[in-house]
Amino acid sequence: MSDRSPHHEVAKSAVLAAVQNFLNQAGEKPKIVVAFSGGLDSCVLLHSLRSLCLTDPSKSPILAAAHFDHGMRDGSAGDADWVVEMCAKWAVPLTVERADRALKSEADAREARYAFLDRTRIAAGHNASVLTAHHADDQAETVLFRMLRGTGPDGLRGIAGQRKGVARPLLGLWREDLEAYARIEGLDWREDPTNQHLVYARNALRHKILPELELLVAPGAKKALVRLARISGVEADAWSEVLPMVFEMLDGIRDGLENQSQVPSLDVDRDALRDLGQPLRTRVIRYLASEVGVILSEAGVERVNHFLSSSSSGRAIELGGRATVSLQLHRVVFVGSRPSIEPARSPVDETVVIKSASQGDSEVRLAGKSYRVLWAEEPSSDSEKEDEAFFELAGLSFPLEVRARAPGDRLHKSVGSRKVKKLMLERRIPIGQREMMPVIVDARGKVLWVPGVARSTSVATKVGTPSLRVRILS
User: Fold this and answer.
1) What span, in angstroms and rounded, lies between the C-alpha atoms of 141 and 232?
2) pLDDT tens digits, residue range 412-422?
3) Which is it for the CA torsion 121, 123, 124, 128, positive or negative?
C-alpha cells in the first residue's frame, strides 16, 4: 500500500530530481547498467530510472541491470531468483553472475562484484555507465570508518560520486528519502539478514555507534560527516591539479619505464625539494611515492624526510615492496617495483586494434579515460579536423593499434624523429594526462599519430588518394 504524506511526496520528488540530473549530464540515450542487489536502495534506483524512461521514451536511456551473487550466505540464490522475477516484471534486461570461487571477506566480495560490474558495463557498449545506489548514510558511515582507522586527508572524501565508469546519483539523498519513495510507490525489496549482525564493522557503525553519537555527542553527526566528505573532496581535487605543477617546478622528470631496471621511476631536483616548507614537502613526497606505486604511511614520509636531509649521493632506502628512493648527485630518484615491458597504465586499459581498412567503431580506455575510435576507407581531404587523420593506404602496415604512450615511442617528422614524450612535454601537456592520451602505431610499432600533438610524415597523403580515415572522440 502506498503512503502519500507530504514528506513522502517531497522525498519522491527529490529522488526523481537526482536521477534526472544524472541523466541530463549523461548525454543523449546513455547506456546504463544498474547494480541491482534487490535491496531497498537498488530497488528505488532502478524503479526511478524506469519511471523516467516511461515518462519520455524518446529521451530515455538504454537501461539494464546486473546482479552478482556472492554466494557467501544461505538465501543468496533466492535473492538472485527474486531479482530475475522483478526485472522480468519491469521489462529490464538483466545479467546475473555467481562467484566462481569462495569469497572469504567483504573486501573479496567487493572486488569480485566490481569486476563483474565492469565486465557488464563494457559489454553494454561504448560510454556505458554502472549506477550504484549509495546514499548519504553510506557516505557518513564510510567517512567515520576511515576516520577511526586513521585515514589521511584524501580518505576523508569518502565515496566518490563518479569515477571510472561508475556513478552514484543518489549520494546526496538520505536513506529515509529512499524509504519514503519506496512507501509511496508500494515497492517490495529483499532484506539481507546479515545487515543486522553487529560483528561486521559497518553494521556496528550504522546501528549502534552513529545513533549513539547523534544521541549523546553531536545531534547532526551524520550531516557533519557528509559535509566533511564534500569539503575533503574539493581539497583532494585541488591537490590533484596542483601536485603535477609542483612536480614540474621541481624540474621533475618522469622516465616511466624508460630506464635499465624496467620499472616506473621519476626524479626531482634535490635542493628544490628540500627547500619546500615541511607541510608541502610532506605532501609532495607522498605524491612522488604514489606515482611509483607506493602509499606511504606517516612514519614512511618522516623516514624519507630524514633521508633527504642526512644522506649523501649514492645512498638509497626502501619505501616498501622493493620500491626505493635514492640520491644521485643533485637528483632525488623514486623507483617503483613493478617489472614490466608495458608502460605504466591503469589496470583497466583497453586498446583498439584496427585490422584492416574496413569500417569499424570501438572504444579505447586509457588510465580510466574513454575514447570512441571510428575508422573507414575514404579519399583523403585537405581539411582535416582536429580529431581526425588520414593515412595513405599504400603506406600502411596493418594491424594498427590505438594505445597509450610506450617507452621509446618516436614519431617521424620530415627531418629525423622525435620522442613522443618530448613532444608532449613541449606541448605543456600535464603529467597526469599523458598516460590518458591515445597513440596510433602500425604493425611495426611506428607511431603514426598522437591526436592534439603531432602526426608522422611517413604516411602523409595527397588529396583524393585512397586513405584510412581515423577519428578519435573523447
Assistant:
1) 15
2) 877 778 888 88
3) positive
